[in-house]
Design a protein that fits this description.
Layout (H helix, E strand, L loop, with lengths): L2 E9 L3 H11 L3 E7 L19 E8 L2 E7 L12 E7 L2 H12 L3 E7 L7 E5 L5 E6 L4
Parallel strand pairs: 1-4, 5-8
Antiparallel strand pairs: 1-5, 2-3, 3-4, 6-7, 7-8
């Protein structure tokens, strides 16, 4: 089983610019970038044109550490203090569930832990101390 804590920066439409900046400033390697427009379409939630070029997920490698990014969805405000989350990454769905359930005690579930197209168990929770966590379960190869 693997378990990692990864800083996750949520930007307000300027993630591509921030990625280029950190790539240069931190001598980082871009591992992955996907826009909202490149995600599978969901007919129940049509994608507005202004969202298509925003970054839905990106990963940089800074030395031995991963740094993840996304843009907020248009209309979702990004407030100082909420643009940085901690992504807890594991390859074990049971461990992800246990962590998610523990962190939600006295906190707030922002997205229930669920299967998505990119993860068998993914959810977002703010713990009772106001710290935002994304719980991400890696797909088995």
């Amino acid at each position: 089983m693997t378990l990692k804590l990864i800083p996750y920066l949520v930007m307000d439409g300027n993630a591509k610019e921030a990625i280029k900046f950190y790539e240069s400033a931190l001598d980082a390697q871009v591992l992955y970038v996907q826009t909202f427009g490149e995600m599978p379409e969901n007919p129940e939630f049509p994608l507005p044109a202004e969202a298509k070029e925003r970054v839905s997920h990106a990963t940089l490698k800074v030395g031995e550490t991963d740094l993840m990014f996304s843009d907020s969805f248009p209309g979702q405000p990004v407030q100082s203090g909420t643009q940085v989350t901690i992504c807890i990454s594991t390859d074990d769905s049971e461990k992800a569930t246990k962590i998610f359930e523990a962190l939600q005690q006295g906190g707030q579930v922002n997205m229930p832990l669920q299967e998505t197209f990119f993860s068998p168990a993914y959810g977002i929770v703010t713990d009772k101390y106001g710290v935002n966590f994304q719980i991400y379960t890696e797909k088995q190869q």
